[in-house]
Amino acid sequence: MIKAIIIEDEQHCVQRLQGLLQQQAPLAVRVVAVAGSVAEGLQAIREHRPQLVFLDIQLQEQTAFDLLGQLEQKDFEIIFTTAYDQYAVPAFRFSALDYLLKPIDPDQLQEALTRITGRQQDHHTAARLDALLHNLKDLQGATKKICVPVMNGLVFVQVSDIIRCQSQVNYTTFYLKDGQTMVVAKTLKEFEGMLNDYNFFRVHNSHLVNIAYIKSYNKGKGGYVVMSDDSEVEVSSRRKEAFLKKLME
């Protein structure tokens, strides 16, 4: 059973989360403490050494990051609970950290718990938090970093360094501007959802390209693009019109 703490300053939010946990995960998660401030949260974490913390972003006059900055070790999983500005939400996704928008949706809570259970022993929480802090400072995406799980751990890649992503069944290969490639055990669709707002376009079922690295477009039924690494990427005929419109923006 996962030992959890809730750090939340709104009592009705605490009650809703506790109720959902009792309904959905009565045998999987045990809440051992509830705290309503940064000071109380620090005390609860140090006393109970939880495996999971549900952490509200805004805690009275302080934030979750004030709390995290005072911890010597961050050896627990975190699910942020937030009414945070929508433009900051991609920062959580890019950093591979879980967040729940208030009011908490039961299905999203269940999905987050499933992910937490699957990665409980990966010991990369501190690295994910570092990436989150970087991404929150860079909401426009100029130096945003994306968390990429590889065979021996995690790699944080600057979005602007990605030339293209290629699908291979349930894997995605990243091609970077320095010539490196990385194979990731995630589908292209997952990365498409993250990168679409950062000048990427799905030109084909098998390819997501960074428009900034397109050298030329060659006509044909769908045509193809030549990327900065001289790779040629086919454009599907059904995506051609939307792609050309995107190029003209």
From TrEMBL:
Annotated Gene Ontology MF terms? DNA binding; phosphorelay response regulator activity
Q: What is this protein called?
A: LytTR family DNA-binding domain-containing protein
One Pfam family in the UniProt entry: LytTR
Among Gene3D superfamilies, the record links this protein to: 3.40.50.2300, LytTr DNA-binding domain
- Is Oxidoreductase there in the keyword field? no
Superkingdom of origin? Bacteria
Domain HTH LytTR-type per the UniProt entry, residue ranges: 152-248
Q: Which residues form the Response regulatory domain?
A: 2-113
Natural source organism: Candidatus Pseudobacter hemicellulosilyticus
Keyword DNA-binding included in the entry's annotation: yes
Task: Please provide the record's keywords in A-Z order.
Answer: DNA-binding
